[in-house]
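Q: How would the structure tokens look for this protein?
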Amino acid sequence: MGMSAAEFSMAAALEPGLTFEHFVALHGRSLGGFALMITGNAADAQDAVQDALIGAYSRWDRIVDNGDPLAYIRRSIVNRHISVHRKLRRLVALGDRQGAVADPAPDLVGRHWALHVIARLPARQRVAVVLRVIEDQDFGVVADALGVSPANARKIVSRGLATLRSLLDEEGKTDGR
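A: Here is the predicted structure in token form.
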């Protein structure tokens, strides 16, 4: 029996001597999708992936030698998003009330609506829900990405799903569903 695409992809990611270019070719698209679900908009997702890959490039051999480069890059994307989110909160707290122009994509139907709802989750819950539910990762991967224990990752996923259900109920009431 052969390997599934996911198993093949993971085996390739853990391959000793994996080149940076090969890694990006294998995982660039899925990292973009992951970042989109985390950030909620395409521009921020592209920035997060680019920043994570730029940061990893100079120490690529060390990253591959230390273990799972895919987990490392995902963690970098999460860290960047949380850092940007904190900076924006500080700006608002300091009186910068103008804020950014809203991304029109969440107003579209289907996938964009889902992104809109997921984007309303707090950052850590969003990361946990995307990894666990959308990317079907185990709690160990969620824990690694968030820098917490697997038990704490379970709590964050649970709270995220509860918040998501509440948001969906709220959206249903306002849309007349």
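Residues 105-177 form a domain with the Arc Repressor Mutant, subunit A fold (CATH 1.10.10.10).

Confidence is low (pLDDT under 50) at residues 1-13, 91-110.

Upvote if useful.
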